[in-house]
Amino acid sequence: MSFDLVFFGGTGDLTWRKLMPALFQAFRHGKLPAGGRILAVARDERSDEAYRAFIQERFSEVEPSKRPTDEEFARFAELLHYRRMDLSRPEDYAGLKQWLDARGADTTVLYLATSPHLFPVICEQLGAAGLNAPHIRVVLEKPLGHDLKSAQEINRAVRSVFREEQAFRIDHYLGKPSVQNLMALRFGNALFEPLWRRESIANIQITLAESLGVGTRGDFYDRTGALRDMVQNHALQLLTMIAMEPPSTSDADAIRDEKLKVLKSLRPFTAESVARDVIRGQYRAGNAGGQAVPGYQQEVKVPEGSHCETFVALRTEVQNWRWAGVPFYLRTGKRLASREAQIVVNFREVPHPIFPGSHRANKLVIKLQPEDGLELHLLAAKGSGTSDALAPVSLDLDFDKAFAAERVGAYERLLLDAIAGRLNLFVRSDEQEQAWRWVEPILHAWEAERSGGGEGPRGYAAGSWGPAAASALVARDGYAWSEEQ
Ligand code: BG6
Hints:
Low-confidence stretches: none
Bound molecules: 6-O-phosphono-beta-D-glucopyranose
Number of domains: 2
Distance between the termini: 52 Å
CATH architecture of the largest domain: 2-Layer Sandwich
CATH topology of the largest domain: Dihydrodipicolinate Reductase, domain 2
């Protein structure tokens, strides 16, 4: 199968930091279908040779095991081409069409790695140039809008040119092997299904913690904040996979229909419930990895007095028969105590304890990163002969070790899926809009607080687990975050 892959924003950060290294890995692993061409388009004039040299140089910033040797790069570079384009000029799209038509590949993937405000104009121009035939797919990179209205505008522009099955909306979390494992755990094994419900589960905690600060992205981040950057997409996608009903097939739409139902079943927020159930924080100076680090407002390109949240913890419920009354806690933040993405399923305690001492409930920890694995926490008799008290032990599974040779990175997987036309790991427009619909009351409540002269997010020390109020949120229900259990 021949393919053409076109990167709009071909000299941008995303392209050289994530996409080119991912494509190179696919190439190195022999997974990239033969007969492919990769075309980068951007505003300035340069030759194919100059573009190849630019990419080769950028590979020095990639982790050493993922860098090509000179010989490998020379072979990879044969696939790379460059074209100057002004994204507002119809002639430039006509030129692109001619370039693509001259070969007539079986599949063409147009990857919009530009700023999202350009998506509508690019789509319109692509449509006008006739670059929307059924063999053409468009990949849209996050952030897709900054609220429901802007997301709908982008989706309208895409829909006026492409059919839904031609639109591949990326949430890179869905490409992580650990996240695909969630589906495997639930629907490839019968073991947990009978327990996967309110009768057995006390609460579910999703934590996406980062130890890094905002780095040099202060200006982007300050317009975004943790709710838009991580909760509206990554955290909610994970929640849907944990809470969804079993789909009847593994078809993209069967899966996405079920995920959408979860999003529609989330308890809607009101101004009162935002005040009660959503905690936002902003990091202050502190200590990360043994080093003193500045607070958010001292980071480059962050305005002083910013109200931007770098931490969110919230409590929600999925209002259906399976989950009624089970709290789902979501938590994400920058400059937290460690880099750790995990889902903790806390089971109910035994109904009638007969052993002395603590009766810690069972829990299943689904570890997404840095390790990819599963831990099942049980209580066992120590057999020390001096006491009948039980001790906690865990069954640990390490998927990185078990499948080391076969693991592929998120972008590698998603690029290969886009080329192959597999939509399962991409987000449908109705899912994405529903997620915005659900977070909007939170955005509105914060905005109202700000215009009323409110104090904004609570401070937390860099290197901690966020504001104390986040612990109180969970403690209110009689529970604790997993690191406090
Ligand atoms: C991105 C966010 O979507 O995800 C970043 O914009 C964040 O702010 C990143 O750092 C986290 O991704 P990962 O794969 O490193 O967990």
